[in-house]
Design goal:
The model has no long low-confidence stretch (mean pLDDT 96). The strands form two sheets. Strands 2, 4, 5, 6, 9, 10 and 11 form a seven-stranded mixed β-sheet that branches. The protein is mainly β. The protein has no helices and eleven strands. The termini are far apart. β7 and β8 (78-83) form a beta hairpin.
Length: 127
């Protein structure tokens, strides 16, 4: 069982930045595709970004492209989501997800594409 722990959420004004982290003790972390999703109140959980095990490949939702950056440090078993130019519509609970399958598959943007999930961290952007 892979345990994921998110941190870094909080309250920020529109235009500001936050950096989310997701850490695990999983020793084969570098083998896992990692993703970030978010869920706003009353809405479905949506894909935000994904990164391959090596960190070479990334993929973003159109709504965050150019503002958010996903990265990972395999030596520290941690994946990051740098969020810049935040908007009120970015307000949501952000979830980290992991899957041992490769990056190049059709389910990379789907909830069913990830086997393990964190508990989430709240991000609130005020206008």
């Amino acid at each position: 069982q892979v345990q994921l722990v998110e941190s870094g959420g909080g309250l920020v004004q529109a235009g500001g930045s936050l950096r989310l982290s997701c850490a695990t003790s999983e020793r084969t972390f570098r083998m896992y595709t990692m993703g970030w999703f978010r869920q706003a109140p009353g809405k479905e959980r949506d894909f935000v970004a994904a990164i391959s095990g090596s960190g070479t490949n990334t993929h973003y939702a159109d709504s965050v492209k150019g503002r958010f950056t996903i990265s990972r440090d395999n030596a520290k078993n941690t994946v990051f989501l740098q969020m810049n130019s935040l908007k009120p519509e970015d307000t949501a609970v952000y979830y980290c997800a992991a899957d041992p399958r490769g990056f190049l598959r059709s389910t990379i943007r789907e909830i069913r594409g990830y086997e393990y999930w964190g508990q989430g961290t709240q991000v609130t952007v005020s206008s």
